[in-house]
Design brief:
Blueprint lengths: L14 H32 L2 H9 L1 H28 L2 H36 L4 H16 L1 H17 L3 H24 L4 H24 L18 H33 L3 H37 L3 H28 L1 H6 L5 H15 L2 H16 L4 H22 L6 H5 L1 H23 L6
Length: 451
């Protein structure tokens, strides 16, 4: 891990350091989305719409698996960041090795369980018979790569805890280019179908995880952040703390996926034009989500280190800086997307009906994204202290509870697209109010944050 890529989170100014941390992380998320879109584009262009549907139909399931463990990796991020702040190199070293082992073991477990339940899950999602076989083939191959996918995410969490978001970005960019090239080689050159993009994804994830693994092994930054065979074991107390923080964060991420699956089922009932419009708008707004999520992760990491070092006043300043930057960038991007919404939507489909409904979705989402910023950064603040259960519970009740209730209790009586989309700002308003209230109650009562 190169010293030039790390950030001193404990001293000096914050505005520039938060920005330097956040930008590569946001670009990483956006690139991941672009590389995922490349898979769909290649099979759609060179194989056919059924193959494209087969790959796309797996997105909700893959999102559930990956989001759960990306959330759990936040537990490793918090624990290592706090220990770095405390200057406890021995425990940092134990935490790094524990995180790597947990990621590999978890990946193997997900692969085994996933292979067993893959067929029934696709049936449960109602995947049509004409794409079912290809969808199952893609999912089974994709699941084989879960150990290296999770390893990359946990390794990225290790680098983030030290303030290095550039090294994971460099590795992801390298592997992403390989992914696109292999997509074309396998599908266009070797005439493969969905198995081609699945194998390309596995190989590219293997490359990115191995690159980070090599950097950790050869790290000259600090002995505590260097992997070696001698210390490759799980520290049970550290593992317990990682899970206590990470599992609620992972479940919180899954809540959003589950609620969005329910909303998607309601969208599907409104016809193909609205399905196409919603899909196009989603592929625009998802880029904004990565920016918002980035500042939540920045808040978690900066708070983790400064809380570990006992710098509570600086923790409060971190929260303010992350909130201000998150809101400013969100506002600017929302204005850009709204003003040029038609242009962005036409990239996916130029049908006037699709454009009309696409703009409806963009307005209901983008005009209220400032509340989502409040949710992510306040949640990130609490996680930085190691207190992960409260934001997860608030998200479950406010996001999942409100959205599912709306879809099944309110929407059947008002079956229009705008009446469905209004559930997003309503659920955000309920959730951000609950999280902020919980935040101030905990602070007022001086609840002891988990160390």
């Amino acid at each position: 891990m190169h010293k030039a890529h790390t950030i001193d989170m404990l001293n000096g100014s914050l505005w520039d350091k938060v920005l330097i941390f956040a930008l590569p992380l946001a670009i990483t998320g956006i690139l991941q989305q672009l590389f995922n879109a490349a898979d769909v584009a290649v099979v759609g262009r060179f194989v056919g719409k059924n193959a494209m549907a087969a790959v796309g139909s797996n997105s909700p399931l893959i999102g559930l698996f990956v989001n759960l463990f990306v959330g759990i990796s936040l537990g490793a991020n918090v624990v290592i960041a706090q220990m770095i702040g405390q200057g406890d190199e021995k425990r940092v070293n134990s935490a790094v090795h524990t995180a790597v082992i947990v990621s590999i073991v978890s990946g193997i477990a997900v692969t085994i369980v996933g292979e067993i339940v893959a067929g029934p899950l696709l049936k449960l999602l109602g995947v049509p018979d004409d794409v079912y076989d290809m969808a199952l083939l893609y999912l089974r191959i994709y699941l084989l790569g879960m150990p290296v996918i999770l390893l990359y995410n946990f390794e990225s969490a290790i680098f983030r805890s030290k303030g290095d978001t550039r090294t994971p970005l460099i590795c992801l960019t390298t592997s992403g280019i390989v992914n696109v090239v292999l997509n074309l080689v396998f599908v266009v050159g070797l005439k493969m179908t969905v198995e081609g993009v699945a194998f390309a994804t596995i190989i590219s994830n293997l490359i990115s995880s191995l690159l980070l693994f090599v950097v950790l092994i050869r790290s000259q930054d600090a002995a505590s952040l260097t992997l070696d065979r001698e210390h490759m074991r799980v520290d049970l107390p550290i593992f317990s703390t990682m899970m206590r923080i990470g599992v609620p964060a992972g479940l919180q991420a899954m809540v959003f996926s589950i609620s969005n699956i329910c909303i998607q089922s309601a969208i599907n009932s409104l016809g193909s034009d609205i399905m196409a419009a919603s899909s196009a708008a989603f592929n625009i707004e998802i880029f904004l989500y990565y920016v918002i999520n980035t500042y939540g992760q920045a808040c978690t990491t900066f708070i983790g280190q400064n809380h570990g070092a006992g710098k509570e006043d600086r923790c409060n300043r971190v929260f303010i800086h992350c909130m201000l930057q998150g809101q400013i960038f969100t506002m600017l991007l929302c204005i850009l997307m709204l003003v040029h919404g038609d242009f962005f939507l036409k990239i996916f489909n130029s049908d006037p009906v699709v454009l009309e409904y696409g703009m409806i979705r963009l307005k209901y989402i983008l005009l209220w994204e400032f509340m989502n910023v409040g949710i992510e950064i306040t949640s990130g603040y609490m996680r930085g202290y190691g207190y992960s259960f409260v934001p997860a519970l608030m998200a479950f009740l406010g996001v999942c509870g409100v959205r599912i209730s709306w879809v099944y209790l309110i929407f059947p009586y008002f079956r229009t697209f705008d009446k469905l989309m209004i559930v997003y700002p309503i659920s955000w308003a309920v959730t951000v109010s609950a999280i902020i209230a919980a935040f101030f109650i905990l602070k007022k009562k001086k609840i002891v944050w988990l160390a």
